[in-house]
Structures
1.
Amino acid sequence: MQSNAVLATLQPNYNILSPSRFYSSSASAAATFLPVFYPQRTRFSAPQYLKLDRQVLASASGRYVHEVKSPFKNAAVLSDSYSEASELADIEWDNLGFGLLPTDYMYMMKCSQGGNFSKGELQRFGNIELNPSAGVLNYGQGLFEGLKAYRKEDGNILLFRPEENALRMRQGAERMCMSAPTVDQFVEAVKETVLANKRWVPPPGKGSLYIRPLLMGSGAVLGLAPAPEYTFLIYVSPVGNYFKEGVAPINLIVEHELHRATPGGTGGVKTIGNYAAVLKAQSAAKAKGYSDVLYLDCVHKKYLEEVSSCNIFVVKGNVISTPAIKGTILPGITRKSIIDVARSQGFQVEERFVPVDELLDADEVFCTGTAVVVSPVGSITYKGKRVPYGVDGFGAVAQQLYSVLTRLQMGLIDDKMNWTVELS
């Protein structure tokens, strides 16, 4: 076994142009036993063992990494020496915002157009290399997802509905003429990436590990056509609250000239172009002191659609209304989960066209999304008129739904929905 002195010399390099694989088939090997992980299990456990060839390398925390010859894929997973007791990253957990902190590893796999993804692998986090004529750079052929991992009090880690993100990426890929990983490939890649970056998962109650899967047309193409090659990549970053207000009420302004999406377009899939379209209105709103922008439909200019990066809900009495998914609104996974939670709590939830005028006499308004989770709205300004909804924090309904959802995501209550996947 290598000495601590040797291991201490192996540090991550964040300034590489094209990161090298973090294991090598040419390295000397020794035999060891490691758990075999089964993708169909909700709990990521180790009921059986397989004799493996060991490639010993040091991670940024000074632990070991092993090459795994598994029946599912050729990939790297952390060994038992990367234990529950492994130290956390040395950062100020109490001061996390929603920004990128470089972590240790990312995951990458590729396939040709119409082909199947295979042989994904973990790599050191760092820059990637793309042909100037890559489809994603020239024609915007790219999708992304967002999900989170939470650390439980017992040290285990919970993922929240990762298969839903996999399905949404596959639906988006079909719309964008892209090859996509299978649901199993997506979920397994997420698991491996989170475990490889385990020391970056915040302590309980201090935040979460944000997971960003990307799918892009990496192959070179000059004429307008689907790219000949696709790259699937996952990186992660520890994060705190999305809005600078934290869980305090946010202030929105309704945009009635610029639009986020159009019927027949790509507003209903998580393509990269949808987000570039909101930057102008969002920047102008933030310059005026607003937190974000609420968009209306582009046809009638009177029905609510969504905020720049999250869905919206309007509360009146026991009825919670949210814009129906009709092709211009992203089908948020947190949105879907809040609807189910609200109905389980006895609320009537309506998915329908919601006129902007209903904001004028609503009891509460709140937003949902992976990044924001549930965010209360303190005011909405429409055509110069400001409508307030309270200044003391969550309204009663939003607080109730937020409490149930976050306690479930963090493993503080029983998961009767079967939504979480536990990693140990």
Note: The radius of gyration is 22 Å.
2.
Amino acid sequence: MACTSTAGRDDDDKHTTPPGAAHTSRTPLNRVYIITSHLASPISPRFTAIMASEDSAAPVVVDDCRGVLLVYSDGAVVRRDGPSFATPVRDDGTVEWKDAEFDAPRGLGLRLYRPCQRNQLLPVFFYYHGGGFCIGSRTWPNCQNYCLRLAAELGAVVVAPDYRLAPENRLPAAIDDGAAALLWFASQAGPAGDTWLTEAADFTRVFISGDSAGGTIAHHLAVRFGSAAGRSELGNVRVRGYVQLMPFFGGTERTRSEAECPDDAFLNRPLNDRYWRLSLPPGATVDHPASNPFGPDSPALEAVELAPTLVVVGGRDILRDRAVDYAARLRAMGKPVGVREFEGQQHGFFTIDPWSAASAELMRALKRFIDTDGRFD
């Protein structure tokens, strides 16, 4: 039975500025342009002419992230408001959704989803989007499609937060925003909370997930809130498990899957390296604590009281070996961590095509994980 969203149905027809663009530092990035054009559209000749007229020599692109984020030689940052590929939103009306703001000063919001038909409180599934900490948004159609399917097939309230993006806002800004979104959600658990949430969400059955960069955020949240002091920050909210979908980890020593990654991969080595160079603090290596959980300056994980964690990897993903090693090291510490590998799948297969057979298999694995409160079988 279909239902109508209480808010936000028109959002996908509007041009939404990605988070963080309005907060750019003038050093070293001194100009920001936002292109609010249709999805997959090129930069217009008029815009190029404007840029050329502002300088004696037209600046050139020095970093290009999927045609969505362009960094110019003069420090200017150009962002489109949507992905470089056109994807229709498949909303059959069985899930309702709305947007909410969790950090007004920074203009950061999240999108909330819930199944229309429900007869009890539902588990909560956080989803932090990917994009190498440089691109992506909760409003993008591929993210919308994935979250609609999550809510419908998991029978869950889905919370999809945005976070500040690099290079305007370098790490750990995105990680801090991920924590702020979870703390905002925890603040809704009381009598003064948003009834749209409180009448549907079971605040004692929360699962934190993210794909790629969002998976990295999930790791850092597991560390921050994996202690008695951390849990006290969340009040009545109880995190039952974490799901890291092809987490975006790095390190100065190449893994085999990184070294052998083909250039035509969806996430190839040049793009992977570019994301880290643009998102980490200036001068940092990929052994920085934000990128490498086992780097020389990263916090020790032995004392972390880790909730059950499911790590999802793709057999053809550049990040496959690093994620498998991450899970193996945590298991060696006695942590409840399981790995689910999808043979032949590339990075982000579940958002590239949420209706593929592999995506359906992932949904079944996620549902088992949630329904059993963190079992891997």
Note: The first helix runs from residue 45 to 54.
3.
Amino acid sequence: MRLIKGIANFRRLYANSIDLNTKSYLSTTKRAFCRPSEYAKVVNTTITCSPFYCSNNLGSRSHSSRPEMEGIEHRVIKANGINMHVAEKGKGPVILFLHGFPELWYTWRNQITAFASLGYRALAPDLRGFGETEAPDDASTYTSLHVVGDLIALLDVVAADQDQVFVVGHDWGALIAWWLCMFRPDRVKALVNMSVAFNPRNPNMKPLEGLRALYGDDYYICRFQEPGVIEAEFREMGYERVLKGFLTYRDPCPLLIPKGKYFGQPDTPISLPSWFSEEDCKYYLSQYEKKGFTGGLNYYRNINLNWQLTAPWTGSKIKVPVKFIVGDQDLTYNAPGIKDYLHKGGLKKNVPLLEEVVVMEGVAHFLHEEKPDEVNKHIHDFFNKF
């Protein structure tokens, strides 16, 4: 039974590049106050704003006209052999924000401005395969070792003056943050993780096979495995509907996506909550129409490979100070066995420096967007101790 619960907990996982022929991108050349509907082109040493090729109705509204976007700067750097886009603002101790699927740096827009105003330097990259960061073609280059390698290389450039940084993760970003703390605890001062709790490696069961046995072939992680299949279905359904479906998902039940039947009927509009606007959706859409979903899906396609690669860390514990936050309507919180694991000492056993588990009432998966002020206070109260 313990084995089955451990595998069940794993269900919470969600869990064309810029060509730089110069080293000048390592300078402090940046862009600021660009529209959400614009992207960075690197031409020699200059980063300029240009419209996305896709049509949108954002008009002339700029970052500076939206409080949560004001003053956010952007640059592309070389990190671990790929070109990474990072959004940043502020001066002071670094907070590294790690997004999930199908999120981008943009999911942290409210946190970036808030923590910059509190005396921190907020950094939010597009992870490998997402947004304006390079997406290698080889699916096997999206493992835990590759992605943590990206982050260490990124910090070596953008936070070279700080031996340790604060980290905040959500969804896949939370899982990556656990790996970062497990592989390189020397680089992390403290961690706030959301939605995806640390689940220790089970040496006796490959995770994908366990998930398929528990939830069937229509379980979303299982459906994501075969390259090209789900991408074709997403194109047929339309990227806008897919993004709205994922980014506003509130059902605490297991996420099943049978062919042609997920996120309601294709002709039924998806209502947006107050915290996620049509303008927000258009930013995501502009990014995914350029690159597609393959980069993000490749994280799921490495679940078993990650299990193999992390064999040396079997039994390892997370030994940095941690605060964990989850919504009571989040599908991750309602996974079999997870509530007992969080509240009866399981997580504390594997994360001995865990200081607090916060369950936010009436809040679903995208808690940092749904309740940004409350989440920001939780993060600030914790980091302010260090």
Note: The chain has one domain: 73-384.
4.
Amino acid sequence: MLDTTRSCLWLWLLVLGLLLFTTNGAYVPITYVQSAVAKGAVCLDGSPPAYHWDKGYGTGINSWLIQLEGGGWCNNVSSCLVRKNTHLGSSKRMVKQIPFSGILNNKRIFNPDFYNWNRIKVRYCDGSSFTGDVAEVNRVTNLHFRGASVWLAVMEDLLSKGMRNAENAILSGCSAGGLASILHCDSFRALLPMGTKVKCISDAGYFINTRDVSGGHYIQTFFDQLVATHGSAKNLLPSCTSRMKPGLCFFPQYIAQQIRTPLFIINAAYDSWQIRNILAPGIADPHGHWESCKLDIKNCLPSQIKVMQDFRLQFLVALLRLGKSASRGMFIDSCFAHCQTEMQELWFMQDSPLLNKTKIGKAVGDWFYDKKPFQKIDCAYPCNPTCHNRVYDDPHAPHS
């Protein structure tokens, strides 16, 4: 009897291990765009751009999904110097292989609409959501602000490797990459043949311009400094920069309505990164009253929940500036989360978050293939029992 029990336990652990392995999908090797260096299309430290490519097959051989990596930004020389010595500023610091999961998964059961596409993860090493454009390199810092050139060099490399024959194409991204997928959406479409079906997805990239808990404009000042440091203004929408200062044109609420390519917005109304870094950044909370709340939404005081409910309303007002369009998709849940397309348990699993009884992966697939439109906004926290609310372990850990 004991041997039978042990055998069953061993078999259960084996099955669990195989499941965890398969949900992550394959490990995909890195590709360096060495030819970009001569063009000045380089990371902050001057190293070449890079991406990971899992090739398409079968019915997906001429379909391309580009996922832009996230990772915040650097807004001045000091923060960019720190970033330069990490994988977010140098391809020399990047791991050689990464697992593909969620929207990048190569298993039909976990990614039914895009599993056999060409799936590319573009690494993020410029600190400006691929908008930087400063020709001169400072000899003291050796910082290169060339994000826009990096974007173009990677796209040209992929076009030469078959993307120019794309029948379907998606530009997607998470966080700073989700913002980049909005900023570059129309230019991505312009690179591809006229007959290509092209759409864009922004995951956790709809950052809003709002006051922090001290009443200050921390994020607006941050974006002003970022745009000035990286010389980003010339790569932001002229229809925006012609009527307001360039830093504001980094906020989706002022530009997204002008994007002509179909766009799907995936965002938590209580986006954990925005709560931690826009609503209650450390500089606006010097005594740490928000630290416990920012670690786990269950720790928040009623007064803090009230502030977060007000933040949600401001987020929805900013979002609704998009206007009405049948071509746009929207999945706005009321979870305390950030980046929901790359994590398998959030994208498409049995217990994934639901809106209108629909998982994110299903909503996006139906929208892309024009099977069914999806524009849903969740009720206020804590109404959605399917949420996977994020819990942070270390209050001093780098913000994702």
Note: The chain has a mean pLDDT of 93.
